[in-house]
Amino acid sequence: SQQGEEDPQALSIQEGENATMNCSYKTSINNLQWYRQNSGRGLVHLILIRSNEREKHSGRLRVTLDTSKKSSSLLITASRAADTASYFCATSEFYSGAGSYQLTFGKGTKLSVIP
Amino acid sequence: GAVVSQHPSWVICKSGTSVKIECRSLDFQATTMFWYRQFPKQSLMLMATSNEGSKATYEQGVEKDKFLINHASLTLSTLTVTSAHPEDSSFYICSASHGGQTWGDYGYTFGSGTRLTVV
Of A35, A94, B2, B60, whose CB neighbour count within 10 A is largest? Predict the structure, then answer.
């Protein structure tokens, strides 16, 4: 079953503005990851934040994690037209049935950055 | 960096035929690979977890006999859609983790996906 729920489902901003996407999840997690998907392509791993971390930065990306609220946010600063894509959060949990960690994806936020 | 190669990127097949999709880890060994299905404008749904040398673990609702998964080596997993029907048309994506012993703590690398259209 789906774990993460992104908000908003779609976001349209002007180039140079910041974009904030939120993700909520339901159960305890090992870590939470954010991915980017360009239309019709595979996913690209952006950033991973562990359950004992509260904030992480990578270039223009800033991710926060609040385990008490079971939520995370992804901030993209100084957006560019090339940032146009769908962004998914995914939680990593260990499933004993499969004997491995598995990712459960949210529904995604479609970001459009207007030049 | 870790690279996962997925082929073909798109395929059109006739209803009733079978289609094989390959997923290869090019520069690392992937003990476990994952197969996802994605419908248009929707999220990824995990279909199965593929472990090298053993049977795949399928998610609830995924037909094992229709979606055959083979993970014969540490660098190759295949998904075969058997007796394909139009409702099997979808975007299929594989992924693998390239972490160490606690590899659940690492990001996953995804293939570029396969667009399957059954006519």
Answer: A35
